[in-house]
Amino acid sequence: MATKRPLGRPPVSSRQDVEAVAVELFLARGFEQTTVDDIAAAAGIGRSTFFRYFPAKADVLWLPFDHHLDRLPATLAERPLAEPLTTAIIHGVMQAMRESGDPRGVWLRRFVAQEEQALQEQESVRWSRWAAVVAGFAAKRLPGARGELAAAMLGAATQALIRSMLRRRAGRDTRTETVLDEIERELHALLGPLQAWLDQIGS
């Protein structure tokens, strides 16, 4: 006689599926109030399977961002030297973001969960590293002390705009690609007018 399958959510089968379940629990209950056992139970997996995918609970939120951060220097470095600096930053950043996104929007909802107080210090450290990557790329194309200052400003301004828009848009029922398109338009509006000033510094 065949054994009946228990009612409830079917077990998930990939790291991305576990990630989606965990993020939804974080949003519904809070990060600190959600345990690994809660995630495993909701996903229909064992604790050992969870830890095979993620070293710790917080890594559900940080691993995808860390992969994005690891990829960002390469997408910036791939931009042609003849390309205006602001355009290179925008295209390099957006390429890395699109590679990190997912059609289900889990990547976006993660930014809402990251606003919890328990995670804010880790979030600030990672976004500071992100801004430093952009600033480091810009500094290679801008000479002297003015160039160094301008590069730091570009990194900070780009980071602030993206971080603000992700927080503002991530909690809504919006497609990932729609949000990324909006971010790209706003980056052009923010950085585009600075190109003439940057050309003076670089000349």
UniProtKB/TrEMBL annotation:
UniProt keywords, alphabetically: DNA-binding, Transcription, Transcription regulation
Domain of life: Bacteria
UniProt-recorded Gene Ontology molecular function terms: DNA-binding transcription factor activity; transcription cis-regulatory region binding
Family matches, as Pfam families: TetR_C_14 (PF17754), TetR_N (PF00440)
Domain HTH tetR-type residue range list: 12-72
DNA-binding region: 35-54
PROSITE patterns: HTH_TETR_2 (PS50977)
PANTHER family to which the protein is assigned, alphabetical: HTH-TYPE TRANSCRIPTIONAL REGULATOR BETI, HTH-TYPE TRANSCRIPTIONAL REGULATOR RUTR
Name of the protein this chain belongs to: Transcriptional regulator, TetR family
Native organism: Micromonospora purpureochromogenes
